[in-house]
Amino acid sequence: MTKQKEMHQYLSPLVRDIPPSGIRKFFDLVSASKDIISLGVGEPDFITPWHVREASFYSLERGKTQYTPNAGLYELREEIANYLHTGFQLTYEPKDEIIVTVGGSEAIDLALRALITPGDEILIPEPCYVSYSPIASIGGGIPVGIETFAKDQFKLTPESLKAQITPRSKVLVLCYPSNPTGGIMTREDWLPIAKLVEENDLIVISDEIYAELTYGQKHVSFASLPGMKDRTILVSGFSKAFAMTGWRMGYACGHRDLIQAMLKIHQYTVMCAPVMGQVAAIEALRYGLEEKDRMVESYNQRRRLVVRGFREIGLDCHEPQGAFYAFPSIQSTGLSSEEFAERLLREARVAAVPGNVFGLGGEGFIRCSYATSVSQLNEALDRIGKFYEKLQK
Fold first, then answer.
1. DSSP string covering 261-290, please?
2. Helix crossing, 289-313 with 374-392: angle to 10°?
3. Phi first, then psi: what are they for 390, rounded to 5°?
4. Residues in contact with 17: Cβ distance below 8 Å, sequence separation at least 6, in sequence order
5. Do residues 252 and 101 make contact, with C-beta atoms less than 8 angstroms apart?
6. Amino acid 53: pLDDT
């Protein structure tokens, strides 16, 4: 009789060797604590507007509980197409260039799995959202980080991109406005990047979940640049700008061949996004734009409060021009990001995410979400200030 293996030996090495999410690991500590002010969760503090919730309730009362088409309700795909055309000058065919997904996260997973041949290199500007590299690895790709810097406002520069491109490079994953840095890219910033994408025959996955959350200037979609629409899979959703995180409603748009490949995977895995969420998303796009704009203005006020607060404390903080995160430097303390965040949690009862979990360039920073109330932000800044004073003694 053969001896049974240890259970972990049955696992795929691609999964076994991936570390747990640094964010989840850190916030397991938070969930067990009391009197914590959390600046860590990337989630709006607003509740989904009542009329959006009501539309979903009413659809349930009418018995709308069946599967939808795999790509999503055609009515929703039409609304997404109209929204992108009006807001971002993008044109997509609802029939076969848009797929509705279970959050933007599923869209990213589908896009990477549809594109990767084992051994392909996936270029990822960092610091970045924690999921890109693990998903690429699970798909058999080789994640290649491209470090960005505070001195450049965490923009992706053509020099740093060019330095990492090899004959095995296939996909460039972008996330601007950036989680965790709040950095953005202007049209002038994008043009040399687009040139390199074309010259090196890359496909782009552009995660634009924070597209609506920009301050002072309008978001420029990478897909809107000359020649980039067919090379770009645009990923977005309703979680951030429409305060619909728990609804898990996302979408992807792109060339029909790419979207239809993603649809095949989607058909065999989740079938379709929940119909209740799709109905709510239609309502949000039709009648929720003013509320979205009010939420964005509130974030802008909090952004100014938080950046000014960190600078007054004595922590360098570049000005985030998008998303709802500040990314202050804690290098002056001499502590690592993880040490600083753990001590801040333990001694000051404030939760922030250590920057090192976001990849290259994240060490020496912490991520702080300002998607919480002004009173909580003021109290958090007061606690951080006192904590920082103690460190200086």
1. HHHHHHHHHT-S--HHHHHHHHHHHHH-HH
2. 20
3. -60, -40
4. none
5. yes
6. 96
- CA dist 388 and 116 (Å) reads 45
Q: Residue 197: pLDDT above 60?
A: yes
The pLDDT of residue 25 is: 62
The gap between the terminal CA atoms of the chain, to the nearest Å, is 65
Q: Among 19-23, 301-305, 327-331, name the one with the lowest average pLDDT.
A: 19-23
| Model pTM score | 0.93
Tokens at 203, concatenated? 């496909």
8 A C-beta contact, residue 23 and residue 351: no
CA dihedral 102, 104, 108, 113 (to 10 degrees): 10
DSSP 356-369: GGG-TT-TTBEEEE
Give me the helices (H) in the chain, please. 13-16, 22-31, 50-61, 74-88, 103-115, 132-138, 158-164, 187-199, 256-269, 275-287, 289-313, 337-348, 374-392
Alpha carbon distances (Å) from 341 to 31, 251, 348, 352, 363: 15, 34, 10, 6, 12
Instruction: Name residue 203's amino acid.
Output: I
Q: What is the side-by-side strand order in the sheet with 366-369? A: 325-326, 366-369, 353-354
**Rounded Cα gap, residues 218 and 322, in angstroms:** 10
Q: Measured between alpha carbons, how far is 382 from 332 in angstroms, rounded to an integer? A: 19
Query: What is the number of residues in the chain?
Result: 393
Q: CA–CA separation, 344 vs 234, rounded Å?
A: 37
Predicted local confidence at residue 121, as pLDDT: 98
Q: Give 95-132 pLDDT, tens digit per residue.
A: 999 999 999 999 999 999 999 999 999 999 999 999 99
Confidence of residue 7 (pLDDT cuts 50, 70, 90): confident
CA atoms within 13 A on the CB side of 20: 6
Residue/partner pairs of 58-67 with CB below 8 Å, 24 or more apart: 59/275, 59/276, 59/279, 60/276, 64/275, 64/276, 64/279, 65/275, 65/276, 66/275, 67/271, 67/272, 67/275
Q: How far apart are CA 318 and CA 138, in angstroms?
A: 34
Q: What pLDDT is recorded for position 1?
A: 45
Determine contact, residues 92/253, Cβ cutoff 8 Å. yes
Q: How confident is the prediction for the chain on average, in pLDDT?
A: 94
DSSP state of 88: H
Q: Give yes or no for a contact between 97 and 261, defined as CB atoms under 8 angstroms apart.
A: no
